[in-house]
């Protein structure tokens, strides 16, 4: 009984601190949403102390067993590198909302200044805002991000220079991109979160 109480407390703390982001937002949305809704209709929901449902067999495991180096899902999905990276990143919804707010404030082609010419028309050539948000969440490094979205090398290097400037506290780079003074704090905070989770490594 003590172990169950400890697991419930651990899960509750993670869910409260992350706003549930680790379970819902940290994965490829299409895969996770379809999986969770299908499983909830078929069988019993997972217990609060084992809230993560493995794809495939629907086994429920504790959040503390995600990305712990030992596979607990039959297919090892709980140790998938994309899941483990995404678990450290801002929730996908937060990233998508951030990108949308920049587009709403500056126009549909604004993100060309970050991602290059393929970011025209509200990121449509890159698959849209949601795909870019998911890729930012799941890509271990900026190189992985560029490869996943097929960015040109020059665009990727420009993006890297923006992140390096933010890492070094140079907000002049952000101002040169046309970021408004009222947005500087939010943009810097968001980019720093990616840097702090190894995006530039």
TrEMBL record:
Keyword Disulfide bond: yes
Keywords: Disulfide bond
One of the Pfam families matching this protein, by short name: Ldl_recept_a
Gene3D superfamilies: Low-density Lipoprotein Receptor
Keyword Transmembrane included in the entry's annotation: no
PANTHER family: PROHORMONE-4
Annotated source species: Macrosiphum euphorbiae
The protein's name: Prohormone-4
């Amino acid at each position: 009984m003590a172990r169950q109480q400890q697991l419930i407390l651990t899960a509750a703390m993670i869910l409260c601190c992350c706003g549930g982001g680790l379970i819902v937002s940290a994965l490829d949305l299409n895969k996770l949403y379809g999986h969770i809704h299908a499983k909830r209709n078929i069988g019993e929901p997972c217990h609060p102390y084992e809230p993560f449902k493995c794809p495939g067999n629907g086994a429920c495991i504790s959040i503390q067993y995600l990305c712990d180096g030992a596979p607990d899902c039959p297919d090892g999905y709980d140790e998938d590198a994309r899941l483990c990276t995404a678990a450290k990143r801002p929730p996908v919804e937060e990233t998508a909302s951030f990108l949308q707010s920049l587009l709403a404030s500056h126009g549909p082609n604004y993100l060309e200044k970050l991602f290059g010419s393929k970011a025209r028309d509200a990121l449509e050539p890159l698959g849209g805002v949601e795909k870019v948000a998911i890729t930012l969440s799941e890509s271990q490094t900026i190189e992985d991000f560029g490869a996943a979205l097929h960015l040109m090398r020059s665009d990727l290097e420009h993006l890297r220079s923006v992140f390096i400037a933010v890492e070094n506290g140079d907000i002049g780079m952000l101002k040169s991109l046309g970021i408004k003074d009222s947005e500087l704090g939010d943009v810097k905070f968001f980019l720093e979160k990616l840097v702090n989770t190894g995006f530039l490594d």
